Each structure stands twice: as structure tokens, then as C-alpha cells.
Amino acid sequence: STGRLGGLNNAESGGVADAKNLRVKLVLLGDSGVGKSCIVLRFVRGQFDPTSKVTIGASFLSQTIALQDSTTIKFEIWDTAGQERYAALAPLYYRGAAVAVIVYDITSPETFNKAQYWVKELKKHGSPDIVMALVGNKADLHEKREVPAQDGIEYAEKNGMFFIETSAKTADNINQLFEEIGKRLPRPSST
Ligand code: GDP
């Protein structure tokens, strides 16, 4: 192992604390309206409040989790806040990101297509060892489902990503999403 952590172990990003306490930059990508802010609010504050839109913009929300191997991971969560429209900003946004969470809405095939676009962008501009998660959100709306889970599974498998379906509304699989990411993060080598 080279001792690098998902492209994060550099001065720019703030990097890691030590082998047992990791700090990672996580970027959210996906069409507007798929539920990115709601996922973050559910994870960080434990609530679903579609009316209180967080204006993240220049800043980020953070949340620390503990894994079973007693590692703690502090996620610094960056929402695009609409900046996904400005392709020129993308490399700046991805820089130092150890994790990318690409979200679509299971009731909207267009958002699934857009998710695939973001995966390609990440492969171009992201760190080569970035951990990528593909998230089909709004799983509670199963009666309106238009993207079969199998499509997400297959796409994720082909692209070396972790796949999960979530509901920010019911909290289904929200904590699991971040725990699974935590398990997949490369650990810095102990020297
Ligand atoms: P963003 O633009 O990707 O950040 O999307 P938001 O987090 O603002 O969510 C857009 C809308 O989708 C919100 O007004 C919520 O009502 C709705 N929403 C988000 N997550 C869920 C979910 O898991 N289930 C359902 N039914 N609605 C959701």
C-alpha cells in the first residue's frame, strides 16, 4: 500500500487524521430534485424536512460515524448546490474527494441517465481511487418506480461502484449507505 487515502492525503484537502480516525471529503452528484439535500439532512440531523433547503454552497456539513472495527470516519459532505451546471467548476469540486455519491430518483429514468453521465465525468476528473456509490433514492415511491433495481445493480457492477436504494423520507438505508462507504475506504497504511 502507498499509504494514500482516496486521493485525500494531501495538504489541499486536509487529508486524514490517523489510521483509526479518518476524515474524508464526500461529493454529492445528481440531478436537481433527486433528494441529495434530503439524504444529507436525514443522515446528519436525522430528519426529513423537504421545506428546509440547506444552502450549502461554499461550505459543507459534516458527520462522524464509528465502524465496527472502531475506526471513526468524519464525512465532510459537499453538495453541488446547482454548480453541476458549470462544467468548468467540476474539477475543483472533485479535487480531494475520496468519495462520490451519485444519486438518482427511481421514479425518473432521466435522472438515472444523468447519473451515468456523472460517473463518466468522475472517471475523467476524479481521483483514480475514489470510492463511488450509486444511490437510487425515493425507494418509498415503489408504485411509481420506473428504474428497475436490476438496472442500477448492473450499471454499478460494471463500473466498480457500490449500489444501494434509499429513502430519505422513511430513512431506509440512509445510515447503511454511509457505513458501506466507510467499509470501502482504503485505510492509510500503519508505518
Ligand atoms: P436535491 O435537489 O437533489 O437536493 O433534492 P431535495 O433534497 O431538495 O429533494 C427534492 C424533493 O424530493 C423534496 O422536496 C422532497 O420532497 C423529495 N424527496 C427527497 N427524498 C425523498 C424520498 O426519499 N422519498 C420521497 N417520496 N420524496 C423525497
Automatic annotation (TrEMBL):
<protein>
    <submittedName>
        <fullName>Ras-related protein RABF1 isoform X1</fullName>
    </submittedName>
</protein>
<dbReference type="InterPro" id="IPR005225">
    <property type="entry name" value="Small_GTP-bd"/>
</dbReference>
<dbReference type="GO" id="GO:0003924">
    <property type="term" value="F:GTPase activity"/>
</dbReference>
<keyword id="KW-0547">Nucleotide-binding</keyword>
<dbReference type="InterPro" id="IPR027417">
    <property type="entry name" value="P-loop_NTPase"/>
</dbReference>
<dbReference type="InterPro" id="IPR001806">
    <property type="entry name" value="Small_GTPase"/>
</dbReference>
<dbReference type="Pfam" id="PF00071">
    <property type="entry name" value="Ras"/>
</dbReference>
<dbReference type="GO" id="GO:0005525">
    <property type="term" value="F:GTP binding"/>
</dbReference>
